[in-house]
Each structure stands twice: as structure tokens, then as C-alpha cells.
Design goal:
This protein is an alpha+beta fold. The chain has 8 helices and 29 strands.
């Protein structure tokens, strides 16, 4: 019986060696449908050479070549070293896109137009990679208006060029964003796992002024943040965690969907906090800090939930995008997230990278995420 997918991870400086590894994976698959090559460290500086070598061996399998702060597979994580994690899968028909734009906002519009032309009612899985420079949450807003984007996920890449696509004809394409649309495959189950511990319960935003939160539950937002900060002895960075209005909030596996945002500034006169253009009255907000125990517990909950949901289906492979702010810098040790995934899914082929930011559904629409692990689990009927 042919394999559904295969992965390999290697510490390498040579683009040709990375390409050979991909060629070996593709050679062991029946009807390869696509591939991803994640790079980090020194090999990322030669990403154009990696893509050129990959184009020679891809044999018509569309492939994305991207760079992050580290790479990972079902075998573990490699951080701050020259390395590559490669995955290829069989079946389906993948299509790659490349978007050029003069600004982050224009990039979002271009990406939305190109994906919108291809998604439609079927809403196939689409993995998107974006150059991190200057990109904020508002850049992805156009994607939220496009029909069929509920299975869009991805990441912000690190370095230049950072992201390259090889189409079925072997042409290498670049831009401010690239994407792969995976036609003819069952859409993956996508979950976001956050690395933050809430310091207070979610409260209702009762006053805003543009991107500023003025009041939470009728109290000045800055005063609430000051109260929370006074109780923190080690002065960690405090984040704003947002959830949709209670009446419309999506529950995923019994967990409220959350999105993490930085506090961009304060207004001492209005006693408000600059958070994000996304905020509006009725939305819920809490303050949080990055926390290893909370990150570990949340990812364990996500894997339990996905294991239950896949009962009756056969997992084929998974992609895991992990924030560069997680990993050893959060946990104080290596391979924590990948060990959690391996305990639940054993030797399921898995590949991914440590990213500048993440893209995952929030309210059913693709949204920029921070300090998040995004797991996309591809299955087939058993």
C-alpha cells in the first residue's frame, strides 16, 4: 500500500542536498500532489538556490519553499540552526499562487482576489505564507471578506526572500505572499493553540474609539490594566486577548476562540488602550501573559479534541506552524510541542516551522495570530 505522505528533516547547508531529500520523498509516493520545504538558519540565506534545485526534482509537483526561525517534524524541532524539514503527499491537485504588491494593504487585496477566484463553495485547504515586514492584522482583513476561506491557514516568514513557489511547470515564483490551494483533498481540521495565561476573566468591551479600547465592563481600560500589572512581580509583557461577542462567539471543542494582540500604546487622558482595528463594542477582552504551562495544557487539549474528532477517519499528515516565541525560549527546553503531538498522533507525517506570526481561523475567517501554534490535520475516510 502506497504512503499518503512522507517527511524528512536534515541539518544542511547545501541546497542540492535539500532538493535530493525532496526527490527521494516524491519518488516513494504514488501520484505526488504537492510538497512543502521549510528552511531555517544558514540555508535560508540561499533560499533562491534551494528553490532552483527543488524545481529540477519536483517533477510537476507544486512546491512551496519558505523560511522560519526553526523547523520541525514528527521527530522533533531544530532551532537556530541551518536545517530543513520537507514533506510531500500523494493525491489531490495543488495549485500555487504568488502575489506582488507595493504595500501590506495592497498585498492583502491581491491575495484575497487570487484566492477568491479559486476557493468558492468548495472551500479547499489553502496554506498561505506572507513576508513579515510591515504586515499587521489589518493586512489580512480583505481575506475575511472572501467566500470559502474557512480552511485558510499559514504563517509569516522570516528573512529575504523568505518565500518562493514552484508551479507544476517548474517555474519559480516569488512575491510578498505565496499560497498553495489543495484541490481534491478533504479539508483539514485546523486548530489554534495559544501560549498565554489569562490574568482576569474575559470582560465585555463597552467603549471604543477606533482601535482604542476605552472601557471594559464600564471601567476605564487603562485602569484595569494598571490593576493587573500591579499584581505581577516579574513585570512580564502583558497582552490583550480578544474573543467575539458572547452571543456570536464560536465554541471549538468547548473552548472559546481567542486571538492575541499586543497593547500598542495608552491614552492617559481617555484612560484607553491602543489594541487593534479589530476591536468593537460587545467584543470581549482579557489581559494575559505568555506562560509555558498554559501553552502546554492548551496544546494537549487541542490534540485530545482532534483525536476525538478524527474517530472514523484516518489521519494522513499534518502541518504545524509554531510561533518563534514558543519553542525553547518559552519552555526552557526543546521539542515540547512536538512531543505533545507525537504522543497523540504517534508517527503521523508532520512538518512545519517557527514563524514570525501565524494565520488561522477566528470566527471562521483567516486571522493573523500571535504566540500561537496552528495545527492542520489532514484526514481520509477510513
Amino acid at each position: 500500500m502506497s504512503r499518503a505522505a512522507a517527511t524528512t528533516t536534515l541539518q544542511a547547508q547545501s541546497p542540492a542536498r535539500v532538493a535530493r531529500a525532496l526527490g527521494e520523498l516524491l519518488g516513494g509516493l504514488d501520484r505526488p500532489g504537492g510538497a512543502l520545504v521549510f528552511c531555517s538558519g544558514g540555508i535560508s540565506d540561499a533560499l533562491a538556490d534551494v528553490a532552483a534545485e527543488v524545481a529540477r526534482v519536483a517533477g510537476g509537483a507544486p512546491t512551496l519553499v519558505v523560511s522560519g526561525a526553526g523547523v520541525l517534524s514528527e521527530q522533533g524541532e531544530i532551532e537556530r540552526q541551518s536545517a530543513a524539514s520537507v514533506i510531500a503527499w500523494s493525491g489531490g491537485q495543488s495549485e500555487v499562487l504568488a502575489c506582488e504588491a507595493s504595500s501590506p494593504d495592497d498585498l492583502g487585496e491581491s491575495l484575497a482576489r487570487q484566492l477568491g477566484d479559486r476557493l468558492g463553495r468548495r472551500a479547499p485547504a489553502s496554506v498561505v505564507f506572507v513576508g513579515a515586514d510591515g504586515v499587521g492584522p489589518s493586512a489580512l482583513e480583505p481575506l475575511r471578506e472572501v467566500r470559502g476561506t474557512q480552511h485558510v491557514f499559514g504563517a509569516g516568514c522570516i528573512g529575504q526572500p523568505g518565500l518562493l513557489a514552484i508551479d507544476a511547470e517548474g517555474q519559480v515564483r516569488g512575491g510578498g505572499a505565496i499560497a498553495m490551494v489543495m484541490h481534491g483533498m478533504a479539508p483539514p481540521l485546523i486548530r489554534a493553540s495559544h501560549a498565554c495565561r489569562l490574568l482576569v476573566p474575559l470582560g465585555r468591551i463597552t467603549g471604543t474609539r477606533g482601535s482604542m479600547v476605552v472601557e471594559i465592563d464600564g471601567k476605564p481600560a487603562l485602569d484595569l490594566l494598571t490593576e493587573v500589572g500591579a499584581e505581577l512581580s516579574d513585570q512580564p509583557l502583558v497582552f490583550a486577548v480578544l474573543a467575539e461577542e458572547e452571543a456570536s462567539a464560536r465554541q471549538v471543542g468547548g473552548r472559546a476562540e481567542l486571538v492575541v494582540r499586543g497593547v500598542q500604546g495608552v491614552d492617559p487622558v481617555r484612560r484607553g488602550l491602543m489594541v487593534s482595528d479589530e476591536v468593537h463594542e460587545g467584543m470581549r477582552l482579557a489581559f494575559a501573559v505568555r506562560d509555558a504551562g498554559a501553552a502546554r495544557s492548551d496544546l494537549e487539549a487541542v490534540t485530545r479534541e482532534l483525536s476525538r474528532e478524527t474517530a472514523g477517519a484516518a489521519p494522513r499528515f499534518a502541518l504545524y506552524i509554531d510561533c518563534a516565541g514558543r519553542g525553547a525560549s518559552l519552555y526552557g527546553s526543546f521539542d515540547v510541542d512536538t512531543r505533545i503531538l507525537r504522543r497523540r498522533f504517534a508517527d503521523l507525517p508532520l512538518a512545519g516551522m517557527h514563524s514570525a506570526f501565524e494565520i488561522a481561523p477566528f470566527g471562521g475567517k483567516p486571522t493573523l495570530q500571535l504566540y500561537t501554534g496552528v495545527l492542520a490535520l489532514f484526514t481520509a475516510p477510513s
